[in-house]
What does this fold into?
Amino acid sequence: MESLSARLAVWGETVLHAPQTLRSWVRTDEIWLAVLASGVGALAGICAVAMNQLTQRAHTLLFALRPGERLSGAIDIERWRVLLIPALGGLMIGSLAWLLARAWPRRPVDPIEANALYGGRMSLRESLVVMIQTMLSNGAGASVGLEAAYAQIGGAVGSKIGLAFRLRRNDMRILVGAGAGAAIAAAFNAPLAGAFYAFELVIGTYSLANLAPVLLAAAASVGIIHLFEGASMSTQIAITGRIAAIDYVPILALGLVCALLGIALMRGVTLTEEVIRRTRLPNCLRTAIGGLIVGGLGVITPRVLSAGHGALEFQLTHQTAISAIALLFLLKALASAISLGSGFRGGLFFASLLLGALVGQFYSDALHIAAHGPALPSDICAVVGMASFAVAVVGGPLTMVFLALESTGSLPITVAVLAAVVVSSLAVRRLFGYSFATWRFHLRGEAIRSAVDVGWVNNLTVAGMMRRDLRTCPITMKIEDFKRAIPLGAHQRVVLIDDQGAYQGIVLVPEVYAAGEEELASLVHYRDQTLLPDMNVKEAIAALAAAESDALAVVENRVSRRVIGLLTEQYALKRYSDELERRKREVTGE
It folds into this structure.
């Protein structure tokens, strides 16, 4: 019995110490970080496959689809289902959101925000809630995609594993990006597109340090989906047309058109959300009414329902009239705006691909009519439009270029897509300045434009940089007493306070010794210029520059003005410079 207990004790001790050993490997060797990232990628792939299959089964059950049929590609759905199921789903989702807001008021953090502000820290529990809400929204037929939920749960898995291994800030960010990118790679069966989704949108930069982990994670996730027949949502596009040199002029113009329409869509979603908010209806009714409207649009054509995989496949394989293309574009854009504006959870990734393909086909037909003859082939314009519109809404130029390459397998088409994507991206940056995700951050008051790590600036606060061993004196002290208490050279500056300990200003010791019979109060500087402990380093440097001071006192708050420290401009600049250099080394992989 003793022998068994001893063995169990040894075994238990080994198990408890195994994570510590693994942590040391991962923290000290980038090869093990890459291995860990591949595990995150595999888990992200499993999550993506499960979400895709569950929502497809929900569509099949709720809308009575044929086996393998996509909701947005169906042609004979019963009208009462199309009209009522999105409304009932909206009522359920709105009620769930209301309950969550009361029981769990904290807003979920997505991978871009986590990497920009929080060093890659995400809540797995909150991400699971987002995943469930998105699946319910998509399963009920709302015009939203699952891609945002894929990235959310993939990033959360990476963050959770990174926290378990106590990774450093930069490694945490890489693991979150690897998880999110792997989920996107699984969704489209496109490892390069998924990897560059991580580089451009979630990590915010590409470097040798993050190359291996992100690529291995994307490859692992794609390997997972190959184990499940029919699990991938990718669309293989057959290109029959050819591109001549002169065709690049209308291709570049198509990129600009997609940029303008993408901006209009993002503005439209915000406007719709504001209009619905002003109705002051309960959240559950807002979402139910939104679902009813989307269902009404679905009665006109089911192509507007769900993300649009079936609709995109249909458009790429069938010839449709230019008027039908224009109508479907307007209805799909309206359905997406109403779905998101009324409270359904989801994203615009796949919707932007479908809308872009419609814009490209319309553009090709319009050129054909205007030229009274052959113009750019419709399939080429559809692919160029897909990538250009998606770049305008989602961002990530290289992500969309590689998605086009992996979907078509055509290098000439990829070169044309690259040209149009550059035009679209530049136009959006100059005319709007945001992708859809960062535009939502802007509306919430977050000052971030990408996933580049700016959270360290907020973590570098005045409270952490200030000196607490400052010298203070009462403002009523006589100059003679001041000179006896503080010898020349002992301190450069002294903070003056009143009888209650409130800040009154700063005096410079050399000025006091050079003064004549003046009162000490007459030599005070910076009476109204102070710092607060929760200011970040950039705010502190700006305040010091505005005051034209080498140092400022730190007060507890603006009301009590109790002095708690002193911060010099020299030290704040040094800390800021040191942190910038550290981030630069992390980016370059040094």
About this structure: The chain has a mean pLDDT of 85. The first helix runs from residue 2 to 28. The CA atoms of residues 221 and 273 lie 35 Å apart.
